[in-house]
Specification:
flat
Length: about 290
Amino acid sequence: MSDNALELYIRPEHEAGELGAAQNIDVERDLSLWERFSNINAVRKLSILLVLIIAWELYTWISEVEELLFPSFSQSVAVLWKTILSGLMFKKVWVTVYVLMLGYAAGLAMAALFLVLAVSTRIGSDFLSTMTAMFQPLPAISLLPLAMLWFGLGIPSLVFVTIHSVLWAVSLSTHVGFMSVSDTLRMVGRNYGLKGVPYIFKILVPAAFGSILTGLKVGWAFAWRTLIGAELVFGAAAGGGGLGWLIFEKGDNLDTPYVFAALFVVIVIGLLVENVIFRNIEINTIHKWGMQR
């Protein structure tokens, strides 16, 4: 090979000179008051709610819609404050939340039992997969007639449909999370001699906690809306109940502001559970562990 050909493969030397100081670049600066507030999650969400409230009030004021059809925000809040002072709203909320806690806790306990069986044996895994495929698409409200026949009109029937709403959503999401745990983590657990329940809680649960938390949130949402809908039916049949019965009773009497006041409470409870309870769990677990941004 000639010398000219060799020169083609020789990379020419390159000398970098001294770089000058950066100009007009903020390496570090204090955040403005607006930037500090906009970085707070609660402030952003409250701002969205405030915009919706203002739009609602402006619509009812400009269009002059009838109160019977669509009351203003101020009218609904006034009625809500009236029910709070009388103690009626607290009574209805307690009845609904009490039934929800019973059904949610029972659903989680049954889901935990099914998941232990699914992780321990192949038959248990096949059983859980089959049951979730059968019952997950089945609306819980469709089981109300059976619940009324089996348990009568009362709390046991409401707990039954609530368990159905929680059980399959939590089981499906958690089982999928367990199945997605890497083989490396599974081998670590086996090398430490973990089996059964210790293996589940020390290896599978931390690794799949993102899916577990999603299942808990979905199960809560399903249970909450199913319970309110079930109380509408049971309220009509038995003449009592919680928030669902209050919505039915006031709607039947054409007290629309009371209906909106009860709906406010349903929405507020949902927001509090999502943004206080589940949000704090996320921050102290999957965010802290770097599993989610």
